[in-house]
Amino acid sequence: MRWRTWDGEGEEVTTITWENEGWTVSGQVSQEAIQYVIRLTATWRVSQFLLFRDLDEPDLWLGTDGAGHWGEVNGAHRPELDGCIDLDLVCTPFTHSLPIRRLPLSDGETAIVPVLTIDPETLATGKVEHRYTRLDHHRWQHHTSHFTTELAVDEFGLVLDYPDAWRRG
Prior knowledge:
The chain is mainly beta. The protein has one helix spanning 97-102, and strands at residues 2-5, 11-19, 22-29, 34-41, 46-52, 60-64, 70-72, 86-89, 110-118, 125-136, 139-143, 148-153, 159-162, 166-168.
């Protein structure tokens, strides 16, 4: 998949592959000069997240047990992130596809999702709530405490357009 920023200045290239009974998502975001890898279970639950900036080794490497307990690769528990099921890497539209693909919502239904946010520039992490409302098969509303936007998705629940930020193609 390829997204471009609405102003045409940035690009993201993302691949999704099936391996070892799960999904591996690899993305490169040009304007941030980062690469990320998200390892998912077969049911699209996050198991690992790696962020690379300018080194061969990950700058950030987090794992979760799937029940909302997070830790670093060195085994250090991150209790401030407990309860987060999904993650939001703020420089990519892809991470919004995670709850959209997984949530069993009918049109008009809403779910509040605890999300681990990651700022690729500072490596700051935090816990916030995102609200997702399924408007119809190809449209979702995404709401945080700071803004509300409507996301267009393809037939697989993968984000097509993120208004004023990203569009696929």
